[in-house]
Amino acid sequence: MNLLFVLAVMMVAAEAAPGLDFGFPSIHSAPIFPAPVIPSPIFPAPTIIKSFSAPVISPPLIKAPIVAPSPFIKTIAPVPVIKHVAPATSYASITHYAVSPVVKLSVTRDQRMTVKRFYNKILPAHHQYVDLNKVLWSKNRYLTKMENVTENGKIYTVMSKETPVSPDLHNLVGVKSRSTVYKKKDVYKRLSIVLAILIVILFIAFIIALAEYIRASKMSKTICVSEECIRSAANLKLSMDLSVNPCDDFYKFTCGRWSNEHPNHGWYPHFSSFETADEKVAISVLEFLKSNMSNKYPLPVRQAKDLYLSCMDTATLDKLGYNGIIKYLHEVKLPVMPNFFNKTAHADFKFDWIKVEVALKKTFAMDNFIGLLVDADIYNRSRNVIYMGTPDSPCPLPSPVKSKNNQKIARRNNVEEKDLEKEKLKAEAYKRMVKEVIKRLSLNISSKVPNDLLVDEAANVIWNITSDLTELADINSTNNDLQFYKFKIDELQSLSDDYVGKNNLSSKVSWRRYVTVMFDNVANVTLDLNSTDYIYVPLEEVNYLPELAAYVSSIPDIYLELYMWWITTYTMILSTTTEMADLVARESEPFVTSTTYRSRSLDCTSLVINFMGVAVSYGIVDKTFTQSIKPKVETMLSDIKSAFIERVKRLKWMDKETKQATLEKTKEMISFIGFPEWLMDKEIIEQYYTNITMRNDTFLENMMAMVKLFTPTQLESLREETERTWKTDPTTVNAYNYFSDNSITVPIAILTQPFYHLGLEVLNYGAIGSILGHELTHGFDNIGRRFDKFGNYKQWWSNATIETFENKTQCFINQYGNFSIPTIEQKVDGQRTLGENLADNGGLHHAYLAYKNVVKKNGEESKLPGFQNFSSKQLFFIAFGSIWCESIDRDSLKFQLENDEHCPSSLRVIGTLQNSHEFAEAFKCPLGSNMNPKRERCRIW
């Protein structure tokens, strides 16, 4: 109870009986003792958390006692008078006496005796007199007169001469008789009763107030009311479907309403918690790019703003037209319009496709037919080598086709009959878009417009080559060996020539020439293809290069030029006029996964992030991160590592030597958290982006200035020593395990809600903690286990341990291989998704064990508002499930099942928790329920 309410009760009583001393201050006096400060219980405001805020418990209503005015004070008379009641008058008639409470009635001894003698003349001798001086305590006043004694019926009035008041003289009032109780005693009795009642009320009020204080203190300690906790509670509650039994479908229980609260605006085929975090990053960068930048910022940061402004300046883009396309077509040795539209050139046309392929790689950083990469030697990470295989690097320039996955527009394998019609419609839409772009470009960059028949034929040729190359490069392998063949260049050529010859073709491919031209004029690199420089090819892609050589050799040069002209032009058209951008957006709608486009400002922001992620990170990262957040994340990762180490020590299926090597690798694993320390160094940032020139009115040229640095920088690293360092931008919403570095990278962009900063450690460990555990476990999954503590690919496990491990993985392969999506009627590939499933299961388990250790050390945490009925263990799993909430359309889901090494998010949650004894125990799931099936749980790590 609020103490102020208790005081109010007391004050009401004081006001009801002025002059009575109840032993406590009046409403205008200072407190005798300070009232204890009792904080009100702090509850989430209903406007913030709607239906799940903690109930506000009102104190019991205590009504103030209705205290009647004192019987001695009926009215306040202007002149104090003493009235006496005749003997027959009852005691109650005392209410007729009018005495001012602010006048002290007193007489001298002589006057008192005079009054007494006067009374004795007319009243019975047995009358007594009661002193009112103690009853009516007030300021000193003067009695005015006592001259006349007037009889007025039964009422007698006594007046006196003006006499000074003396504090020890008394007012005298006659009382009925000797048998009547003294009036003074009656007053004290009434006062005692009132005082006793008030003491009881005060005591009760004090007990209630004390109990409320204790309850409020406990409440403030047991319920987290920080801004982070309130936000986390709101996000979780709004996403969860509490009507679902968590033991039936925990994903629906956790994420059942997530899609309603996080609508996909149309530009993401797959919208999840990762995309929501990505949007937050984009908005932060956008606000920064719009801000005023002084010269205190490093030059690359200001250049990032120039890139943004040039992207937004559509008026200048329209004015420049297609001049940029013409310029860069010439730079890669392609004509303004392909020779395909010149029929007379078809017969004897010769085209050096290798030279153009290299030019596209160096100028646009784009793989077209061949993928080439310089990276650490998988067998000896101290040096870099050349890797070749399928094309894996799409051009970084903006395009309606966002990734290699989306380029698979028409798949000829495993296409269900009901989808064939849809694929045909996509093919027709793609060809229609090609024709419209060719016509529009020819009107603006060429003096001749090709006829419709040639344009139709060109569109068919481009479509056929696109779909053929897609199918050729679609190595949908489930081989997890990750082995590489080391070829000398002549060995690779011989393999290709044999395959071409078997198809009765004349080879157009020279691998030696391709690699030599690629490294021409690369600083500090002199190739030795005859002895020391090998070509590394993934085992599963060994057949691709010979098959590509045969395919290219089967295509007329005039078609090759047409196709490469189209790929190059298509790469640049979205960076030209708004008219062309609108045309492409409209015509490509049927075959791209995005049905709508974001605002241009957000598209331009994303482009700046892709090109200059490090520069914009300088502007948006929290400068206190290194001191405040980073140590906490490092501690969490250390806790998870410790839990993993303890788990390894208890393993019975791993022999002693392998166990020791595993522990050593775990301890050697390094982490990169947040962003590189040099990010805050102005000089290093400027060195990182050296030799870049940008203007705020040349969009395409600005991007090309960046793109041209990508490939040469990578090629120059061939002779450089390798080092374990940052390999991704801080703006990336993801986390990584780099096998060859034996390292974990956690960019700052993922260290935000809904993954981190969740208010309670149980939520942090369930969310970002399970991700850290996921990446840690990747180092020991079916692929990561093949890399030793130095990051070299080698066998460092015993044969017996390998055999046991592979037998144990079969449990996961079978479990996930039996999962299917009802709307697609297609099962998960348990072999292809094995590595990710092992990481999910191990990561969650180690994060859980780490959190249990935190609780042992620090004790239980506060409750989350609105989740008081959930245990901390349950909250841990709810936090885990919540990070995998998503909204995904059927086509994207089908594509994921066919191509991705990750399971659909719903199955990641269900599959992982079905294997968790701790989860079943936390939610008391009965044996045989969906989330606690009657089978052996799959567990390795």
UniProtKB/TrEMBL annotation:
CDD domains: M13 (cd08662). GO terms for cellular component: plasma membrane. It comes from the Eukaryota. This is Endothelin-converting enzyme 1. Residues 413-440 form a coiled coil. Residues 246-676 form the Peptidase M13 N-terminal domain. One of its GO terms (molecular function) is metal ion binding. The chain crosses the membrane at residues 191-211. GO terms for biological process: protein processing. Its main location: membrane. It is a single-pass type II membrane protein. It comes from Pyrocoelia pectoralis. Residues 734-937 form the Peptidase M13 C-terminal domain. Its cofactor is Zn(2+). Belongs to the peptidase M13 family. Keywords: Coiled coil, Hydrolase, Membrane, Metal-binding, Metalloprotease, Protease, Signal, Transmembrane, Transmembrane helix, Zinc. Residues 1-16 form the signal peptide. It is found in: Cell membrane.
